[in-house]
Every structure is written in C-alpha cells, then in structure tokens.
Design a protein that fits this description.
Elements: H1 5-8, E1 11-13, E2 24-26, H2 41-70, H3 86-102, H4 104-114, H5 116-157, H6 160-171, H7 174-184, H8 187-202, H9 209-230, H10 243-250, H11 267-272, H12 274-304, H13 309-339, H14 345-366, H15 373-387, H16 394-401, H17 406-432, H18 439-463, H19 476-495
Antiparallel strand pairs: 1-2
Length: about 500
C-alpha cells in the first residue's frame, strides 16, 4: 500500500488536551492548493449524481400526493380507491423511512466496500421495479402490502447519501467539496419540485394514481441507464478521465483508487468524536422538520387550508423551488467565502447551519398565526428556502472530519435521524387524531417542532468541530492498536 509522504509527514504531536487526547493533528489539510482545473470528467460524474438524486427523490416524494389520490373516492370514473384513514396513511408514508433507517449503516459499509456506482445502480433498479408493482400489490394485499413495498424502497434507497458522501470524498479535492457538494445536494429538491405537481396532474388522468407509479418507474429506468454508462465509483474508473485531471483530483489524497487499502472502520474513534455528535444533533432536527413537511404538507394544504388536491400538489412543490434556489445560493456563497479565505470553515458551518435550523424554527412559529392560505404558503416557502442552507452546514461537516470515512459517518448519523423521520408521520397522525382539518392541532405540531429544532441547533453549535481527525488516516487504527499492544506487554512485564 502506498501512502503519500505529504500525508505521513503531516502529523504533529499536540499538547494532549481535548477529545481523545488528540495525539495527532494534520496541518496541511487546510493548506490544500486552490488551483482550478476547469471542466472535466468529474463534472460528468457530478451530473450523474444530480440525476440519480433527482430520480430517487421524485419517487420518494410522489407518495404524499399518491396516497391522497388513492383515498379520493370523489372520482367515479377513475381507478379503484381505498378507505384508508389518516393513521393508515401515516403507516404507509412512514414505512419507507423505517426501511431507510434500518439499512443506513449496512448501506454505508456497502458503499465503502463496493463503491457508489454499483450500490446506487441497484437502488435505482429496485425502486423502479417496486414502483411498477405498487398498484398491483395495493389491489391484492391492501395497505399492508403497500407498506411492505415502500419498506423495500426505503431499504434500497438507504445507500443514497452514504454513497454520495463516499464518492464526493473520492472525486473532489478538498477546496471543491463545499461548493460542488452543495450543488449536488440541491438536486433532491428538484425531484420533489417535479414529482408533486406531476403526481397531481397524473392523478387526474384516466389511469389516475396508478400512472404516478408507472411514470416514476420509467424515470428511474432512464436514470439507471445513464448512471450505468457515465458514472464511476472513483476517478480511475471513469471512461472520460484524463491523467491531468486525475492528478489534480488525487494529488492531496492519501492513496489512489487502486491503492485503497482494506482498513477497519474506526468505530470507537468516531463515536468518541464530539464533532460527530454535533452532526447527529443537527441531522435529526433537520430530518424531523423536513420529513414532516415532505410527507404531510399536501395534507396540510388540502385538508387544513381547504385547497384542492391538484392545486395543493402544485403549492406543495413551491417551497422546494425556494429550497433548490437556496441550496445553489448557499453553496455558491459559502464556496466564495472559503475560496477568498474571508472566513474559516468552522464559521461557515456555524453560520449557514444556524440560518437553516433557527430559520426553520422562526417560520414554524409564524405558521401558527397565519390565517390565510397565501400567508401560510409564504411561510412554508421561506422556511424551506432557509432550511436548504444546512447543505453547506452539517451535511458537509462529515467531509471536514474525515473524507475517507464520510460515507460511513453519514450512514451513522442518518440512521438515528431517520428513525425520528419514521416516527414523525406517526406522531403527526396521533396529534391530529385522524382530523387533519383541525388547524389547532397542526399548530401544536409546529410549536413543538420549532422548540426541538432550535434546541438541537444550539447543541450543534456547542459541539461543532471542523478539524480533520487523525483517525481519517487508514493506518491510524493499526498504529494505535500496535501501540496499545506494546503498552500492555510492557505493563505485563512490570507486573511480573
């Protein structure tokens, strides 16, 4: 295994204070060259990643509209409908996130072991097949069968963000990760923007809600074909990669794709890292608030604000237009600030994450006195626009701490965050008591969520870290294990 001399010589003894004694620090991590290379194969790779995220989130988000159409018995000329109350709809919507949470850590390990291309290709194909099957399983097995299909889709999609983080760590030099990573993570919002109005339009056709699933499957199959042809797990495997661009990408990395060693995941060092727990605090707060609107916004608009199903589908997409634009703007602004070295990485993470989560809390509270539908929709647009700023906050924080294990860390924070996401629709259905027309009960959810999100972001700020961790080095665990064994042998000799 080849380890670059710049890396092996970049460790220094510290004063021994702080987290885990912090025996080693890597100074060159913040002195990475900021030279530009221009367009190349990495941009094709990033485009493929954007397309995959768009397709997967289109499928994920269309269910919020589809379940309303599947229970709408006011269209006698449409397909069969089902008598599923709000609680049953909550089970269907949350089943995806149950599978998604269960598979997070295994998904991160699969991405680390087999590379992002293969595991994401499987995710795309599995979701396409299950989309095709949902109308049939709903007819034959009822809501429980739909839950099982959605559970399977969640299992497959669990590899999405760990794979993306793993590939970002391999494909981008350190000074490009914040800006390009922010752009990539804007595209889930494009999937949501497309899916909600599209699902509303498709639900009004002769095939009705069934066409939502068939069209979603067709989109995924097209994305899977492009992914299989043009994506790669690392630069060396891409058909368009030039030697000059590959050297530009890999010059500050400890090893190339071919040289990547088989190393242990430093589990105990990750869970001892205060920075990881800071990320987890912010991650679960974002997931709870985001998933709440992700699955329940169409219901809130249609039942709570008395907006028609097709119109609510269009309005449900509007806040995600703001989120898409906010993601692009925050990625550009944060990247510009860092490139000009006007602020530190830590300051950027702190400020942008606070705009995202404290902003979410403020507009959740403003939804309570909002009496008109226009004002409520305006608050939702502002809320999700500001929430998008976390894409250059805690979302990129994994890569600050450890580019080599960012995918695994993403899976470790995403798993508990999505357990909370799984519970959110169930809690909402319990609070609403099967009466989504009662605005007072929606307001209880808004206030409780605002308090939780604000408290979680405060915890993030108190524990935030952005320094590259010594255990990011593939050889760190082996060296520490050897050192511990030597110390134990010495101690045993002294005891004798």
């Amino acid at each position: 295994m080849k380890i670059s001399s710049s890396r092996s010589s970049s460790y220094e003894e510290s004063d021994g204070h702080g987290e885990g004694s912090r025996l080693l620090q890597r100074e060159p991590s913040r002195r990475t060259s900021r030279e530009a290379f221009g367009l190349g194969a990495r941009h094709v790779q990033l485009a493929c990643m954007c397309g995959a995220l768009t397709g997967l989130f289109l499928v994920r988000s269309s269910m919020g509209i589809a379940v309303l159409a599947m229970t709408d018995d006011e269209r006698p000329d449409g397909p069969e409908t089902y008598c599923w109350d709000k609680r049953t709809q909550g089970y269907i919507l949350s089943s995806f996130f149950c599978g998604y949470a269960v598979m997070q850590v295994p998904g991160g390990l699969l991405a680390k072991r087999f590379g992002g291309k293969r595991v994401l290709l499987v995710a795309l194909l599995v979701n396409a097949v299950l989309c095709i099957c949902i109308p049939t399983v709903a007819y034959l097995g009822g809501w429980a069968s739909v839950c099982m299909a959605r559970f399977g889709m969640g299992l497959a999609q669990a590899v999405t963000f760990p794979s993306m983080h793993t590939m970002l760590g391999r494909w981008l030099p350190q000074h490009e990760r914040t800006s390009y990573g922010g752009y990539v993570y804007a595209f889930p919002n494009l999937g949501i923007i497309i899916s909600m109005p599209l699902a509303g339009v498709l639900s009004e056709t002769v095939l009705g809600w069934k066409l939502i699933f068939y069209v979603s499957a067709a989109v995924l199959l097209a994305v899977a074909a492009a992914w299989a042809r043009w994506a790669a797990s690392c630069p060396a495997q891409h058909p368009l990669m030039t030697e000059a661009e590959r050297m530009y990408i890999e010059k500050d990395m400890p090893y190339t794709c071919e040289e990547q060693p088989s190393v242990k995941v430093p589990w105990r060092y990750i869970v001892r890292c205060r920075g990881f727990w800071a990320i987890l605090a912010a991650h679960q707060a974002f997931s709870i608030s985001h998933i709440f609107f992700f699955v329940d916004m169409p219901t809130y608009l249609e039942k709570g604000l008395n907006i028609s199903l097709q119109k609510s589908a269009w309005l449900s997409a509007l806040p995600y237009v703001g989120m898409l634009l906010g993601s692009f703007f925050s990625a550009w602004l944060c990247g510009a600030l860092l490139d000009r070295q006007l602020v530190s990485v830590k300051t950027c993470r702190r400020v942008f994450n606070s705009i995202g989560l404290y902003g979410t809390s403020v507009f959740l509270l403003l939804l309570v006195p909002a009496r008109s539908s226009a004002l409520a929709v305006g608050c939702l647009v502002a809320l999700l626009t500001l929430q998008s700023f976390v894409s250059v906050g805690f979302v990129m924080n994994h890569l600050d701490l450890s580019p080599n294990f960012a995918g695994v860390m993403m899976s470790m924070s995403n798993a508990p965050a999505n357990v909370c996401s799984f519970l959110t629709p169930l809690v909402a259905s319990y609070v609403l008591r099967n009466d989504p027309t009662d605005l007072a009960r929606w307001h209880v959810m808004f206030v409780a969520m605002a308090a939780w999100v604000a408290a979680s972001n405060t915890a993030y700020l108190l524990q935030l870290r952005t320094d590259l961790q010594p255990w990011d080095d593939p050889e760190y665990v082996r060296r520490e294990d050897k050192r511990r064994e030597e110390n134990e042998a010495v101690q045993a000799m002294l005891d004798e």
